[in-house]
Amino acid sequence: MKKDIVLGGVGGQGILTIAATIGTAAVSNGLFLKQSEVHGMSQRGGDVMSNIRISSNEVFSDLIPEGKADLILAVEPMEALRHFKMLKNGGWLITNQKPFINIKNYPELDDVLAQVNALENHIVIDADGIAKDLGSVKAANIVMLGAGLPFIGLEVEMLEDALGVLFGRKGQDVVDLNIKALKAGLAEANKVINK
Amino acid sequence: MQKAVLLGDEAIAQGALDAGVSAVYAYPGTPSTEINEYILRSKEHRSGNVVATWTTNEKTSMEMAIGASYVGKRALVTMKHVGLNVAADPFMNVPITGVNGGLVIVSADDPSMHSSQNEQDSRYYGKFAQIPVLEPINQQQAYDMMPYAFEMSERLNAPVLMRITTRLAHSRAGISFGEKTKQNELALPKNRKQFVLLPSIARVQYKDLLNNWPNVIKESETAGYNKYLDGKDKSMGIITTGIAYNYLMENYPEGIDFPILQIAQYPLPTSMVQRLYDECDTIMVLEEGYPIVEEGLRGILDNGKTIFGRLDGTLPRDGELNPNLVAKAMGFEIPEINDTPEVVTARPPALCAGCPHTDSYTALNMVMEQHGDGRVFSDIGCYTLAALAPLESINTTVDMGASITMAKGAADMGLIPSVAVIGDSTFTHSGMTGLLDAVNAKSPITVMILDNFTTGMTGGQQSQATGKLEAICEGLGVEKEHIRILNPIKKYHDENTAVMKEELEYNGVSVIIPRRECVITLNARLRAAKNKKKLEKANKEN
Ligand SMILES: Cc1ncc(C[n+]2csc(CCOP(=O)(O)OP(=O)(O)O)c2C)c(N)n1
Ligand code: SF4
User: Fold this and answer.
1) Among the atoms of ligand 1, which is closest to the Cα of residue B430?
2) A2-193: what fold?
3) What pTM was estimated for this model as a whole?
4) What is the pLDDT of residues B307-363, one digit of tens each?
5) Pocket residues for ligand 2 (CB within 6 Å)?
6) Is residue B344 part of a domain?
C-alpha cells in the first residue's frame, strides 16, 4: 500500500488538522509516514499546502514528486487547481466548492469549477454547507477529509480513532461532531463514486 | 513500541530531552521555532527540571548556553540560519574555549527562502569554526543524533552544530524513542583559565583545536552516520548530503547499482571520499544547500575526474532539491506533467484582517504622501508585508534591526524625513543599540515601534519588549515628550496622523509607539479563557 496525497487550502482553513488526522491514523496502524507542511510566512492568509505520503514500506522523500500524487484534497477550489501539476494521470481531485476570497483578483468561480469539472476523476462538495447542518462550519475540513477517505487507503474506524486522539482534549462533543462530519463527507463522496 | 508522529523539529527537541539536556535557549525563527515550542510544552520543562526560554536574540541565547555548559550542564541553542549571523561572535570563539557540559547548536536553513531573506548554508559556519557538524537525513536520525551530539561534544571538548533544512524541520514522521539519559551534575571546569580567551591563552587553545582536527575527522569516519553503500556499477559514484539521499532513493524504488557515499556528519570522512573517487569513473554530488562538498571535491583547478552537481548545471545552483530535479540529474525522463490552469491566481501572504499594523501604516502612508518614495526604512516581521500592495508603505528590509540604523545613515547623508518602522520583538532583538547611536548623534529620525505584545511573524511567541518600551527608549536618552503612544485603530486615524506629522517635523530622535495586541494572539487568548471556563463548569457538574 502506498498513497501520495496533496492537501491544499488557505492559511487558517484547517488543512494541518486534516494532515495530522491522516498521519496519526497511519502511524498507529503501523504504516510509514512522511508529511511535510508549510509553516511561517505563508500562514498569513497565503496558500498553504501539505504533502502526505503513507506506505507499508519506508518512505524516503518528504516531498511528493510532481505528477505522482494519487489525490489532491482541497478545502478551497482554486487551491485544488494550484497543485494540479502534482496530480498523476488518472488521479482524483476532490475539493470543497466554497471559495475563500481574500484577494481582489479572485477569478470567476464558474471558471474555476469548470476547470475542476473538466477533469475525469473529480468530486466537488459543499463542505461548508454540510458542516453547518451538522452544527459548526468549523468541521468543514473534516467533511473534506471524509470525502477523500475512499482514496486514502485507510479505514473509516482508523480515522475516527485519530480524531478521538486529536480532539479528545476539547471534549467528547467536539469529537462526536468531527466523526459525524467525517462520515457525512464520506457518504457524499460515495454518492459520486457509485453514480 | 508505538511511534510518535513528530515534526523533525519536535524529534530534535525530544531527542535533546532524552539526552539529558538541562537548558534550552532560543530566539524564534522559521523553520527552527517548533524545537523550543515543543520543549516549552514538555513536562520536563513545566515541572522545572529543564530550563527553557525565548531570549532577546540569538547571541544572548548562545552565550547563556555557553554559561550553562561552563557549569557542566548539557545545553541546546536553536535558531534559524540568519540567527547564526547574529550569534556568530560567541559561536566562533567557543570552539577555542571548548566546552564543559555538552553544547549543541541547531541552525535551521531555509533553501528556496520559503520564509527568509537568504538561503545561506550553515555548514560553512561549521567549517569556519572548525567544529563537528551533523546533518540528519531524516526525522528519526535527527532524534537519534541528539544523545550522540551531546556525548561527542563532551568527549571531543567541542561545540557541535546540527544543521537542518526546512523540509526535515517541517515534515512529520513516526519516531521511536530511545533510552533516557540523566542530566549532568553541576561541575565547574577543572582548568580555571579554560574560558579566558586572553591572546596568550587563546593562542595555545587554538593550537589544541587545530591539533584535535584529525580526531574530529576520525569521528566522522567511525561514528556510523556516514555510510559507504557499495554498488556494482562503478561508472558513477554518488555523494549525497543530508536529505538529498531521500530524493535520490525516491527515484530508485527497486534499489540502486551505483555506489553511494551518504554524508550526515562533517568534516568529510576523507578515506570514504577517497575510496569513492578511486573506485568510480565519475562523481555526482547531490547536496541540499550550497555546493560546499562539490567545491571541495573539484578544488581550485577542477582538473580531476568529471564531477556533476550544482556547479556544472546538472542541478540548479540555487534553491532546494526535490525528487524531480534529482531524477533529471540522474538522466530519467520526467513524465509529462499537468500545466497549472490559468485561472489560478497568486495568493500572497497578507496582514490579517484587523491587524493593528494596517492602521499604523494607513496613517503613516497619509503623512508620507507629501514626502515621496524611499524614506521608510523597515525591518523583519509581519509588518514587512506592507512592502506589498495594497499598503506599499515601506522601502527596505535587510536584516533584523536595520531599520533604525539605516534611517540614521540616510539622515546623516541628508535624507529628511527618515522614518524607521520596527516591531517590538525586533526592537529588543537588535534595534536598541542603533537607537542609542541615533540619540547620541541627535539624528533627525522618527522611529515607529509597532507594539503588538508579541513576536507575530513566527507564531506569537512572548516578546521580551512587552511593558518595557517607554522605559527602554527613555533610558537610551530619547526625550520623554518625543515618545508618543498611539492606539492604531480606525477611530483614531486623524489623531494618529496628527501625532506622526508633529514628530516627523521634529529635528531630533522621536519614537512613536502604536500599541494594540495582535489579533491572532488576542483571539487565542480569548478562546483559551472560554475553554477554561467550559472545563471548570464541566468539572463542577461532575
Ligand atoms: C536574525 C533573525 N532571527 C529571527 C528571524 C525570524 N523572524 C522574522 S520576524 C521575527 C519577529 C518579528 O516580531 P516583531 O518584531 O514583534 O513583529 P511582528 O511580527 O509581531 O509584527 C522573527 C523572529 C529573522 N528573520 N532573523
Ligand atoms: S499575526 Fe498578528 S501581527 Fe501578524 S499580521 Fe496577523 S494580526 Fe498582524
Assistant:
1) 1
2) Pyruvate-ferredoxin Oxidoreductase; domain 3 (3.40.920)
3) 0.96
4) 999 999 999 999 999 999 999 999 999 888 889 999 999 998 889 999 999 999 999
5) A 44; B 351-352, 355, 357, 382, 452, 456, 518-520
6) no
